[in-house]
């Protein structure tokens, strides 16, 4: 009986890791015959798990959607990662996540082995969260509705408040959601303007109304995150600077966090940093504090700012 129960748990775990499995694949992973797999699938169904089966060469088994969530089978690292993620989600940018995250975490901690509860508890006891006061939250249902519209290629209509405070109705074909600098952005084709637009989700000021279905079109950039970042920088009047850092990529990649800019190797002894800021002087000082020699490349106003600060610092000492 214990062997059968362990095998059923193993089968359920495999079904959760991939969309579809063939019978021979499952039999090989569990070291049993295909007939045993069929019997075990029937047992899972009798326990209420919606295991779907498709016949033929292209068929297989998959875990379908059911009225109740099946138990998640997590290894040690996955369980700790989920617990830490739930604990930090309360300080995020999605409204209403704090209470939901705490409830889910309480349920998870009840079933964690004692050794894992100690690890998660240590993280809780010795980590000091600092709330990000200027974070703008959005409603989780709004995000879910937009994501579903992107997936199903369904248009959306809503009232949108522009940067200058004016509001107007927009009809869009949604394609992607992007989370950047603690804000949510929608990348969509604007039907009225016949062009791509980026919308801040927190500026959607009305209920999302369904629009017409559409055929997805090629995105404006293969890197949608970079596309949104450029658009946001342009709207804020942000300066984009390029510098050469005189140090190997392996050494500097640990000093330059991803949010500070894009770092790429130039050769064995130097890197190129593409950074941005709405304060040109602060950007120059930040780059100097990375701790290696550097060469300001562009734009000209940034190069001049570095030269001016260098002269001022030299006179100060």
Outline of the structure:
The protein is of the alpha+beta class and 317 residues long.
Low-confidence stretches: none
Quaternary state of the chains: single chain
Total strand count, please? 13
For the record, what CATH class of the largest domain applies?
A: Mainly Beta
* Mean pLDDT metric: 84
The main sheet orders its strands as 8-7-6-5-9
Radius of gyration: 26 Å
* Distance separating the two termini: 80 Å
Query: In percent, how much strand structure appears in the residues?
Result: 15-25%
Order of helices and strands: HHHEEHEHHEHEEEEEHEHEEHEH
> Largest sheet at a glance?
5 strands, antiparallel
* Count of domain modules: 4
Total helices: the number is 11
Outline the structure in words.
This protein has 317 residues and is of the alpha+beta class. It has four domains: 2-63, Arc Repressor Mutant, subunit A (Orthogonal Bundle), CATH 1.10.10; 76-125, no CATH class; 138-234, Roll (SH3 type barrels), CATH 2.30.30; 239-316, Malonyl-CoA ACP transacylase, ACP-binding (Alpha-Beta Plaits). The chain has eleven helices and 13 strands. Helix 2 (23-30) crosses helix 3 (34-46). The longest helix is centred in the last third of the chain and has 17 residues, at 300-316. The relative contact order is 0.06.
């Amino acid at each position: 009986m214990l062997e059968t129960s362990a095998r059923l748990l193993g089968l359920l775990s495999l079904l959760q890791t991939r969309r579809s499995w063939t019978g021979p694949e499952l039999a090989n992973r569990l070291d049993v015959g295909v007939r045993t797999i069929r019997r075990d699938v029937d047992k899972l169904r009798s326990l209420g798990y919606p295991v779907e089966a498709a016949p033929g060469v292209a068929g297989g088994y998959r875990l379908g959607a059911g009225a109740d969530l099946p138990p998640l089978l997590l290894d040690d690292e996955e369980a700790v990662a989920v617990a830490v993620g739930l604990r930090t989600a309360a300080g995020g940018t999605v409204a209403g996540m704090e209470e939901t995250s705490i409830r889910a975490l309480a349920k998870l901690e009840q079933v964690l082995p004692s050794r894992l509860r100690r690890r998660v508890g240590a993280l809780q006891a010795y980590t000091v969260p600092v709330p990000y006061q200027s974070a703008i939250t959005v409603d989780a249902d709004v995000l879910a509705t937009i994501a579903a519209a992107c997936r199903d290629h369904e248009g959306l209509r809503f009232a949108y408040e522009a940067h200058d405070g004016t509001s107007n109705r927009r009809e869009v074909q949604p394609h992607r959601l992007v989370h950047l600098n603690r804000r949510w952005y929608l990348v969509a084709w604007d039907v009225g303007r016949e062009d791509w637009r980026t919308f801040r989700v927190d500026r959607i000021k009305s209920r999302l109304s369904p629009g017409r279905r559409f055929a997805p079109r090629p995105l404006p950039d293969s890197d949608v995150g970079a596309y949104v970042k450029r658009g946001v920088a342009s709207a804020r009047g942000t300066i984009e600077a390029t510098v050469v850092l005189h140090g190997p990529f392996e050494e500097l990649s640990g000093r330059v966090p991803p949010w500070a800019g894009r770092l790429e190797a130039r050769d064995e002894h130097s890197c190129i940093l593409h950074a941005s800021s709405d304060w040109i002087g602060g950007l120059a000082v930040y780059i100097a504090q990375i701790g290696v020699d550097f060469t300001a490349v562009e734009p000209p106003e940034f190069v001049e700012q570095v030269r001016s600060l260098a002269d001022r610092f030299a006179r100060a000492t």
